[in-house]
Amino acid sequence: MIKIRIPASTANIGSGFDSLGIALDLYNYVEMEPSDSCDISSSDGSNIPTGEDNLIFLSAKKVYEKAGVPFSGIRIIEENNIPFARGLGSSSACIIGGIFGANKILGEPFTKSELLDIAAEIEGHPDNVSPALLGGFTANAMDKCSVKYCRTDIPKNLVFAAFVPPFELKTADARAVMPKEIPIKDAVYNLSRSALITAAFLSEKYENLKTACDDKLHQPYRLPLIPGGEKVISESYKNGALAAYISGAGSTMMAIFEKDKESVKTFADSLLSSEEFFGWKYFILNADNSGAVAL
Ligand code: HSE
User: Fold this and answer.
1) pTM over 0.90
2) Cα separation of 148 and 159, whole Å?
3) Does 248 contact ligand 1 (Cβ within 6 A)?
């Protein structure tokens, strides 16, 4: 069996809708070997699809098809630590686990860049799959079926506080509340800020992040779906956050700090002790700069 480790990811980073993402040091694991059937189980007791609709299975099968290799089945053992449907890239981790594992089994017929194109085709947008595969911060644009990207490492002094509500938010539902068209001034608001996020991470000028991660494309429409979300943003800024935003399509709220982990943990404990955050939990994380790796 080969074993793949895949990081969680936080996409959009506010203004970089469907474009920007950062890998985080919270990991899923996928063990995989060729088989004559679809044999899928979980080592952590999580309730997962065990049929041919399993996303790891489908993604692995896609790599076989693209490589022109007959596919008879695959044995998969999953360990899921990334919460499902919470905006932390759990689906993307499954896709990357499937394609990265299948590529290894087949003797690596595809480059990382080709794997990213396959992953974006399955996911529909590149902002989670790209950091999950490559690690670090990635800025991505789709050019027909190809992902063009730039990436950079994120230093360990940046701490990511992921506040996870007790409810799921399906990406399709979070996309359904967004307007179909936006005024040009809102487009300019967002494109200038997403450019600034990329420049801020590439030049380590993090003081720009608060302005840069604000947006008018998706968060104003999605925040009403996340009771408590606005308070996480305002309290995080009051406590010195560099950035605070909805992670991906939600429901997780993310705040980035340049502080020691203990003081961020103290803030998180204090915030979530209030009644309105009953059932929420948090992760205090660093970025992952490795992306998917075979262990
Ligand atoms: N960019 C996506 C969205 C992330 O916000 O809908 C979810 O995969």
Assistant:
1) yes
2) 27
3) yes
